[in-house]
Write a sequence for this structure.
């Protein structure tokens, strides 16, 4: 940006320098150029995805001969083929079940735990909070080895539980932490008033805490849904049965079965990718907020 | 809480316990003390895997955090009309890493890959490589993919942080004649130091936990050039049935990640006291 401007002497601070008096208006890059630069960056970013969609309509020989060319015809036949022989419908269903159950579990347990931590003083509270904070830091690598032998002994590998349980557990620390921040901000009088009116603990939780938590719950739901949907390592280790695989592992199995049918693979990739992009474009504000809040803590 | 205890805490403790044994996953478990740790310390492959992951982290810091910062700086200069750009750059974060990995394996493919074809058409045919098959480029190639995914993510974080810099500060600097680059370098970046620290923490701890890209794109190859601790320990445990040894490596890795996390939280907490310019 500053290439065209002489560099200010390094001794000058941005504040209080009189030497700049002659050039009070900062150099403005022409709007067109600026927008153009952004557009170029965006295109470079998007190009692999465009290439993927274009190639899904091509034959192997066309992919090899003219990698940049637009497809000669838009034929969704390959997509249908990929969807059917790739069991993508089955994988998607598995992903939906696993993700749905995990998110539901995280929301219910997370809200209840956050409510307990925020509103009650009980023995062991600090210890439990400490463990939870540890859970925010612990990497997956610290437990998946023993977890897998445990699940084998309990005979729950190759069931959906083998993914739902760990996904729920992994999502809980952050969920509790975020929801507790929301609840702590609620004035205590609100809860006192409800209790004086004779509401039970459960009632207070259900009728006061939960509705107040709605925005927090939405954030938690978004990032836990995405991380469950995209999780790969555990899905790879715990699920061998093809009928139970989720999208990431299913797609990997598919790509090793049809290694050389590139058009078909590109079709499968496109099928998996496009719905996510559509969802993202529709809900981009909430999703961006959810993901960044989820990781920045 | 019980779910968390059952599925995470208990296995953490058990992994720690396993790390002192020699066990193949079903036979008898033999207590071997710290042998596994001694073995890990002397294991060249394990050491190399740490070197690789450190290189990977260094590259991704540049490609994700620095690029993200610059992009956020660019976007925040002209806020109008930048929404579509931010939406576009953030898109890859949404996709499963496996999808990204398979797609980029195609981009790097030496027969029809986008990258080699692009080099060819620009007359740079000499630069063509078997990107993922060449030990000299494989690690860089994987890091670039990670950069492609997360640059937009960090851009979004920094963009949000830039927007919280009070406009009076920026206006004042502008009146003093600061140009956009000086604004960026001397005002905006120092004022979002907390966000940058968090981003670095995420990038570093995330890097140590990387797995998906490496597993799908190279699985440690070629010739171990992209072997990182996670892929190596998954191999030891699930391919070679060395549960004890794998657990010891997992404990080492965990210790590194948790220690880094604690250091960063401490640094961040001390921040308010030493904010300078």
């Amino acid at each position: 940006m500053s290439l065209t401007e002489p560099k200010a002497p390094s001794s000058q601070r941005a504040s209080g320098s009189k030497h700049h008096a002659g050039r009070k208006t900062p150099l403005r890059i022409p709007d067109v150029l600026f927008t153009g630069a952004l557009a170029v960056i965006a295109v470079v970013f998007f190009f692999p995805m465009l290439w993927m969609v274009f190639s899904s309509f091509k034959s192997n020989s066309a992919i090899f001969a003219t990698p940049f060319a637009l497809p000669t015809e838009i034929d969704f036949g390959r997509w249908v083929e990929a969807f059917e022989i790739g069991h993508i419908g089955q994988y998607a269903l598995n992903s939906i079940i696993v993700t749905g159950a995990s998110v539901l579990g995280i929301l219910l347990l997370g809200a209840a735990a956050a409510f307990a931590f925020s509103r009650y003083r009980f023995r062991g509270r600090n210890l439990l909070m400490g463990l939870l904070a540890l859970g925010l830091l612990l990497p997956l690598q610290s437990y998946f080895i023993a977890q897998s032998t445990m699940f084998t002994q309990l005979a729950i590998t190759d069931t959906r539980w083998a993914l739902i349980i760990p996904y729920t557990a992994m999502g809980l620390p952050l969920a509790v932490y975020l929801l507790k921040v929301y609840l702590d901000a609620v004035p205590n009088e609100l809860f006192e008033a409800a209790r004086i009116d004779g509401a039970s603990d459960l009632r207070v939780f259900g009728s006061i805490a939960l509705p107040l938590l709605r925005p927090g719950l939405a954030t938690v739901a978004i990032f836990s849904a995405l991380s469950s949907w995209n999780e790969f390592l555990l899905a790879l280790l715990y699920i061998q049965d093809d009928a139970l695989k989720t999208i990431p592992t299913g797609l990997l199995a598919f790509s090793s079965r049809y290694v050389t049918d590139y058009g078909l693979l590109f079709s499968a990739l496109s099928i998996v990718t496009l719905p996510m992009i559509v969802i993202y474009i529709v809900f981009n504000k909430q999703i961006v907020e959810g993901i960044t809040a989820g990781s920045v803590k | 809480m019980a779910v968390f205890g059952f599925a995470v805490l208990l296995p953490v403790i058990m992994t720690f316990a396993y790390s002192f044994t020699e066990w193949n996953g079903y036979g008898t478990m033999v207590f071997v003390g710290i042998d596994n740790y001694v073995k890990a310390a002397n294991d060249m492959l394990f050491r190399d895997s740490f070197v690789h992951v450190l290189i990977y982290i260094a590259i991704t810091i540049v490609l994700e955090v620095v690029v993200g910062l610059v992009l956020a700086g660019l976007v925040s200069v002209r806020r109008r009309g930048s929404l579509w750009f931010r939406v576009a750059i953030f898109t890859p974060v949404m996709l499963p890493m496996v999808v990204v990995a398979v797609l980029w394996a195609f981009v790097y493919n030496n027969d029809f890959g986008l990258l080699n074809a692009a080099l060819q058409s620009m007359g740079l045919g000499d630069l063509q490589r078997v990107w993922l098959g060449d030990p000299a480029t494989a690690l860089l190639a994987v890091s670039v993919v990670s950069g492609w995914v997360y640059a937009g993510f960090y851009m979004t974080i920094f963009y949000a942080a830039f927007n919280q810099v009070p406009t009076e500060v920026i206006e004042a600097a502008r009146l003093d004649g600061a140009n956009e680059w000086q604004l960026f370098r001397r005002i905006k970046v120092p004022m979002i130091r907390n966000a940058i620290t968090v981003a670095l923490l995420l990038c570093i701890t995330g890097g140590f936990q990387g797995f998906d890209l490496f597993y799908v794109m190279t699985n440690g190859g070629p010739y171990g050039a992209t072997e990182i601790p996670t892929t190596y320990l998954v191999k030891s445990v699930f391919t070679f049935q060395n549960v004890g040894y794998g657990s010891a490596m997992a404990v080492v890795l965990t210790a590194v990640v948790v220690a880094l996390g604690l250091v960063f939280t401490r640094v961040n907490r001390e921040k308010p006291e030493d904010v300078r310019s």
